[in-house]
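Annex B.
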Amino acid sequence: MSYTVPPTRTAAVVRQLRNEIVTGELPPGTLVKDAELAARLGVSITPVREAIAQLSVEGLIDIAPNRTRHVTKVTQKNALELIDVMSVLACAGFEWGVENLTATHLDLMRQRQREFVEGLRAGNVLAAGAAGADFSTIVILASGNRELQSMVDLVVARTLRILAMGADSDLWQTWITGHEEVLALLEHGENQAAVARYKQIYVDFRVKVERELLGE
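GntR family transcriptional regulator: predicted structure tokens.
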């Protein structure tokens, strides 16, 4: 994920709407109207329609047969399925990339981890989510498989939106602790143990999410 300025109006609208959906500003089931969005965002209808089409591909907006659009509704089933898919993709990329990591990579991962924690402390979920995702991105890109990273980015965005995790959510702690322990293992050259610990993050996260969705 990046903080760079989007190159087009469509990309800017995509980023804005995605952020509003991820943070819950546009709740599940919200009716999405082209003209209203265009007026609010100060753009023409065309980039709004293109953005809606993109977010539909990402699974954030549902387009009905009658062409009405709504922010995708949440179910326990699709939340857990997304976590399962994210786990398979991210863990594969992590395992493929871990042997290619250098000291520079580890320094970047430590920096992203600090930004992740600081973002949560400041209540900035979007910044924290981006930094947390970048922690894994560094390893996945080290595998050389950019197509895999593109798929991981899509699933991460959808998962964050579905869970709408606030900065104070207990769910973040699973990632904070897991990242710290993964880093410690990598810094000691224990790559395979780091891969195993990384995989365990997803197992623990899924259990916590399932309990939260069930209200336990």
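The longest strand covers residues 61-63. The chain has nine helices and three strands. Further annotation is deferred to the next reporting cycle.
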